[in-house]
Amino acid sequence: MLATSVAFAGCIPHFASAQDTTPTALAPIIVDGGNAADSEADVQGYVAKSSSTASKSGTALIETPQSVSVVTQDQIEAQGAQTLGDVLSYTPGVVAEPFGADPRFDSPIIRGFDGRHVQFLNGLRMMRTAGAPGVEIYGLERVDVLRGPASVMYGQGNPGGIINMISKRPVFETFGEVGIQAGSFDTYGSFFDIGGTFGPESDLAYRLTGLAKNAGMQTDNLDNDRYFIAPALTWQPDEDTKLTILTSVQHDNPSSPSGLPPQYTLNATDFKLPRDFYVGDESFDKSSRTLTNLGYELEHRLNETWTFRQNFRYSNFDWNYQALGMSTLGLAEDGRTLRRNATFQDERLNTVNIDNNLQAEFSTAAVDHTLLFGLDYRYFDNNVHTRFFQATPLDVLSPDYGGPIELISPTVDTTVESRLTQLGVYVQDELAYDNWRATLGLRQDWTSSSGTSTSNLTGVVRPLDQDDHKLTGRAGLTYLFDNGIAPYASYATSFEPVVGADADGNPLKPTSGEQVELGVKYQPEGWNAFFAAAVDLKQKNVLRTINGVSTQIGEVEVKGLELEGVVSLTRGLDMRAAYTLTKTEIGEGIDNGNRVENVPEHAASLWMNYTFQEDTALDGMGIGGGVRYVGQRYGNSANTLDMDAVTLFDAALTYSKDGYKASLNIQNIADKEYVASCSSFGCYYGDGRSVMGKLTYSW
Known about the structure:
The protein is mainly β. The chain has a 22-stranded antiparallel beta barrel. A hairpin with a 2-residue loop joins strand 26 (about 545) and strand 27 (about 550). It is globular and about 80 Å long. The model is unreliable at about 1-35 and about 545-550 (pLDDT under 50).
């Protein structure tokens, strides 16, 4: 089946810490044509039929007046995706890895906006001030990308959209797989995914998913080990009631590759530092973190009209981290001595999310309604101790490792103890009249933050108390022609509170955004096709933090075009193609008129996978290949760090027989060397060639 999408979008990033850029996000457009029984189930092939992400009601994507892209489990597996950046690398409107691979967290840019803070797990937001921690991809069933403002359904957020990761969940049939993997950067691991019921007539189904791996990274001496376990249980006593318990524990030790001086990377002439160059020191760098999730999803049909749903999750995040990296001071005057910072970060985070909604399906005269009333609540307890020191420098031309590392002078020593609460009430009506489809929604949010930020160097205690409230809305209209063409128009707004004060001590204003999206989707009989065009995105009061000073620069505008085609054919051919044109402009401040950093004007991708059929000589064999193009972009808002366009090639080879499956995935086949990003924190290389092999047995 085929799905194609087009969309306009805009973006702008800000820097708050190393790699802490806030870009604008482009909302993806998706049309499904899969066999999913519901909007969170497994999808056979690449083309999903519906998504609960956009409306929480599971409306068909052809009838959804907003851009949504669904990356299914089949596509994730075929491409051998190991990170969220890998998953999103063929999605329009998304810069999947603007800073190269960073195992600490994923930092995609969606329509130009920072995607670190708009990542959701099963429809509930993952909270962390420095960006959501990386989630184990093997535990996911699919990933939905909703482009454009999503505040009506999800509360505070930027105008770019959201990324909703859907966990694997129990099904009422017996299945299982076990496997081993090995690949580049000394990666070795094993994994399993088993499930079934507690008897032939049981109303209980279980699923247990797990993974263990030892791994390194492209940069020498960095670890990326992980242990993951996710037990899940579903109780379905009758057709009207379903309770699914979703839990997971993930323990890992990620460290970030350090930025490198542009003199020896982006602007290198005679000498260039290699991609595996290590700025840290094994005697000093340490990382240990644990992410625990405990939650459930309850759905109960009260009668033929009303259905009640409640989603809940408690998350605990504990991270101790220390590492050496390049200082913003860069190279010393001798051109070879690299000034280094030592970073210490201790985090203790607790988050409670709960979302309740009542859905009614009824008719008034000739109009059918799907009416949704909702109330959600979020509590975030944030305890973080951060210290920066000037540390022993490193001679980049003749590096000497092994310590001892001297902490020369402290530059930052801050303890933040804060609490954030958000309460939202929302209502949405999806109307159907003849061939017309309309979506109307409003939401009122109240947010409150309290706590202190204490400088242990100066003794200054800064209060973080702030209250905000905002009414947001969206409206969309679609017409379904009998020939499969579905033009639509939509308008949506967003807001995001910003905790803190500017250099003069004035409270920072909430950022706000609005988007107009015009498009057309096409879904001919027997296919699934989607087109969406013309998005005009604006964000006001955009925050930037440079050298510890926070300012708000006014308005950023993004316009663009997104094209997406997704095909799944019964004869074994799967394809995803995308093109994105993004025009960004900063509307105020010293960079007025410049392009937003890290956002290319042009990006394109194509992935194809073919599985040979049973009646052919190559029965069981599968081949896949992809190409990704990321256009020219700037590393900073001053547009002085100019990064060249890059084209990357990927490939996959599989063989399946009698329950066994062997697979080989290669990313960046040509081992293309390129700079993924540059900023005041240095330049970061994109990943070179990586190879991953797996052997799996399924039943």
